[in-house]
């Protein structure tokens, strides 16, 4: 198949919110600096639903969504040296080129090399898509487009992993689990004894809980409007805002003698982001925004909240350097130092992808993994 167009199945989003359509898609061979990957398993993340909803200013249609997956390299383009056909890999929506201003800064995991192309749904080389249906181009998404049996990504967006690792599990290391763990370990740097509040107990929020537990937090307060109980991720107390008349920030301040040391917003709701900041302790409390909010939404608070020492931060992919650290996270999973299996509540096939999105919006679903 090397050098040839591959025709395979992919789920195409033609229009916002219209059911995805399983189509025969043509996938062009990788050009210089590109890698074609046979995707074996992909999970669904809330961000896929967000872009599909039409609320993402970078959303383009028709496109192939998906960014939490694992697969095997099928072929590589000219000049690609770090992976070869047969390598087991995780596509990384957050690239790491190790050469750009961002990568060299030592201050961020964001990479500038291919971001303009991935935001425009095309490849960097020729600003064109490698996906088409009968000659009509279909946009890429987040530089990954994993809802396809084959995808083409930039070489700076591929993490080569232990070939022994089960791809139906480690696919989750493409987004949600690292985001939550890294928000605690890299962005907030939660210390032993800290009091933590987590708004939104989906996969990202529960991975925050897992990270906070491993960091030695003394209290991990989970806040969700859905009183589902997920044990063993580390949440020590559960608060449902619907059980109270007073604002949730006040509930938390009262519960914690003045506020929490760290809070994490894992929903994408700007009023909850405000509550998450305002439940932080005066003088030092830090709030980390993880959730992705719709186009046009803005955050606000009284500046006095910051003047009096609270800190507002955000994180993308938990601050992890993707190509360098995803393989390390895979190794940690293999050594049973981090969980993955516990986040997988459903397993379906690509053909059932619309059902998988329905499940996401129901309680009781964390991650649904699709076999391609
Ligand atoms: P999810 O839908 O599985 O979880 C969200 C949770 O929030 C649900 O349990 C829901 O019941 C709860 N919730 C909704 N409204 C609430 C409210 N008003 N108060 C309290 N709880 C509420 O989503 P997920 O896949 O865990 O992703 C969470 C968010 O993080 C999404 O916005 C996603 O786009 C974003 N995300 C960001 C990054 C990043 O790098 N910054 C990475 C992954 C996901
Ligand atoms: N296109 C959206 C932004 C979406 C966003 O913030 N994405 C997160 C990852 S979410 C993964 O589930 C991210 O990493 N952002 C950094 C980046 O470079 O995109 C919008 O609203 O414009
Ligand atoms: Zn995601």
Characterization of this structure:
With 372 residues, the protein is α/β, with parallel strands linked by helices. Helices cover 24% and strands 23% of the residues. Strands 3, 4, 5, 8, 9, 16 and 17 form a seven-stranded mixed beta sheet that branches. It has a six-stranded parallel beta sheet with strand order 12-11-10-13-14-15, with helices on both faces. The longest helix is centred in the middle third of the chain and has 13 residues, at 176-188. It is globular, with a radius of gyration of 20 Å. The two termini are 18 Å apart. The chain binds nicotinamide-adenine-dinucleotide, ligand AHE and zinc ion (ZN). The site of ligand AHE has 12 residues, from loops.
Write the layout of secondary structure elements.
Elements: E1 6-12, E2 21-27, E3 34-43, H1 46-52, E4 68-76, E5 88-91, H2 101-105, H3 115-119, E6 131-133, E7 136-138, E8 150-154, E9 158-160, H4 167-170, H5 176-188, E10 195-199, H6 203-214, E11 219-223, E12 237-239, H7 248-255, E13 262-265, H8 270-278, E14 286-289, H9 304-307, E15 311-314, H10 322-334, E16 344-349, H11 353-360, E17 367-371
The structure holds nicotinamide-adenine-dinucleotide, ligand AHE and zinc ion.
């Amino acid at each position: 198949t090397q050098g040839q167009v591959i025709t395979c199945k992919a789920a195409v989003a033609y229009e916002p919110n219209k059911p995805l359509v399983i189509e025969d898609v043509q996938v062009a061979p990788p050009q210089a600096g590109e890698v074609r990957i046979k995707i074996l398993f992909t999970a669904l993340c809330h961000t896929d639903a967000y872009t599909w909803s039409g609320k993402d200013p970078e959303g383009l249609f028709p496109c192939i969504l998906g960014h939490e997956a694992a697969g095997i390299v099928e072929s590589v383009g000219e000049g690609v040296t770090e992976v070869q056909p047969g390598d087991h890999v995780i596509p990384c929506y957050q690239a790491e080129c190790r050469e750009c201003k961002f990568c060299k800064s030592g201050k961020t995991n964001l990479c500038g090399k291919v971001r303009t192309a991935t935001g425009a749904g095309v490849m960097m080389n020729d600003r064109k898509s490698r996906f088409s249906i009968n000659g009509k181009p279909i946009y890429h998404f987040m530089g990954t487009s994993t809802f396809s049996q084959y995808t083409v990504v930039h070489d700076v967006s591929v993490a080569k992993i232990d070939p022994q690792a089960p791809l139906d599990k480690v696919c989750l290391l493409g987004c949600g689990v690292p985001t939550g763990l890294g928000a605690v370990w890299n962005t907030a740097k939660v210390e032993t004894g800290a009091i933590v509040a987590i708004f939104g107990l989906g996969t990202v929020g529960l991975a925050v809980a897992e990270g906070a537990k491993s960091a030695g937090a003394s209290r991990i307060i989970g806040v969700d409007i859905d009183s589902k109980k997920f044990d063993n991720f580390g949440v020590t107390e559960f608060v449902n805002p619907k059980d109270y008349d007073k604002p949730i920030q006040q509930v938390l301040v009262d519960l914690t003698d003045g506020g929490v040391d760290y809070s994490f917003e894992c929903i994408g709701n700007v009023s909850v982001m405000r509550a998450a900041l305002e439940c932080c302790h005066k003088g030092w409390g830090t709030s980390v925004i993880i959730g992705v909010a719709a186009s046009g939404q803005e955050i606000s608070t009284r500046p006095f909240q910051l003047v009096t020492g609270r800190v507002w931060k955000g994180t993308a992919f938990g601050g992890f350097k993707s190509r360098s650290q995803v393989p390390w996270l895979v190794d940690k999973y293999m050594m049973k130092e981090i969980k993955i299996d516990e986040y997988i509540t459903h397993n379906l096939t690509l053909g059932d992808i619309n059902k998988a999105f329905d499940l996401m919006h129901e309680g009781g679903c964390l991650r649904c993994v699709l076999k391609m």
